[in-house]
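Weekly sync notes, structure subgroup
Attendees: PM, AL, DS (notes)

Item 1: joint prediction request from the bench team. They want all two components modeled as one assembly rather than separately. Inputs as received:
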Amino acid sequence: MSAFDHDHDEGSGVSRRKVLECMTWAGTGVLWTITGGVPRSLGLVGSAEAAEASKAMTFMQISDSHVGFDKPANPNALGTLEEAVGKINAMPAKPSFMIHTGDITHLSKAKEFDDADRIISQTKLDVHYVPGEHDFIDEEVKLYKERYGKGTRGAGYYSFDAGGVHFVGLVNVVDLKAGGLGNLGNDQLEWLENDLKGRSKSTPIVLFAHIPLWTVYPTWGWGTEDGARALDYVKGFGSVTVLNGHIHQVMQKVEGNVTFHTARSTAFPQPAPGAAPSPGPMKVEDSKLRSMLGVATVNFKQVNSPLAIVDTPLQG
Amino acid sequence: MSSINRRDFGIAVVATMLLPVTMARAEDSEAKDLEVHIDNFVFEPAQLAVKAGTSVTWMNRDDIPHTVVCAGKFRSKTLDTDDKFTFTFTAAGEYKYFCSLHPHMQGTIKVE
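Output from the run, pasted for the record:
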């Protein structure tokens, strides 16, 4: 084992110095390119991004719409989802498809699912969903699966290929254990191992799930108990991107060839880890709310070349 | 110790009064019932000792739904803001429970 055991091919090889250099950009930029798993900030979202995007396969990430939420932190979560959809529809380059990283609804009510679908379908994009814990709280725990479970396994995990990239949607919000974090479970992990087996190591991999697969802040349950096992299975791949939601704020981490990224919510912001007594909805000034909500665009130019994640707030 | 404290005395009196009633139900003796609040993703109090027959009511005061789950013993519906769930503890023992949506939220009811 060398210190550079991820550094296995020229195309995606990354030196440690480079990683650190790029890490210093994390948290300041809003537009990202990722070369071999290393993000660098390109500056503010604008025409440059639009021009870039037109040459690439792009897809959207939307998360935590919490349709039905009407508390002071955002009395109209459906309205801000509609604004997010408006942003997506106004993009100069139409994304290929969209992923939704869960908490579509706030309380898993049929009307909430209906309302969410009515708005999200206005993008006219294929949407690949994974559930959040808020999507499984109807009494019979059936509404999510009825709507989005077709062709999936277990509580709703699956994989698909698009633009030379292998996407895996994982479920880490069921069978949570007392005192624990998010949970993938043995069946799903075994399936994941098999799903990845035999794939060319140069295939870019995107794992997406609701709760962060990496440990963000265990005190608030922001992590996945057996997430390390999933990450073990993607170790040999040249480019791995992990997209999550749940924490209602943008966070990034780079580890070897793996880039972790969490998206904003379209409903309400949550505090930075430990910055408040609890991870509950954060009430901010009305004028600030839309700068803390948003969507993300992910941009693949071609296999093993720069990938960009652009976080776009609804305003600001 | 032969002295009896005021609370035990009260319970003894209530118990005596209920004696002639067949199958005295715990919820009839309101004085004993207790509440656990959920604020800021915390069960408060997180530890509670009660006598058998006590009803405990959980009330969610957060803007986020929670549940109260004790494996094999009881499981609330999803509690939205201001929703309540009540369980009556008839058997002695230690009941560890948690929120199945936010499993870092945990509490214990000790029933004597």
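Discussion: The radius of gyration of chain B is 15 Å.
Action: AL to compare against the crosslinking data before next sync.
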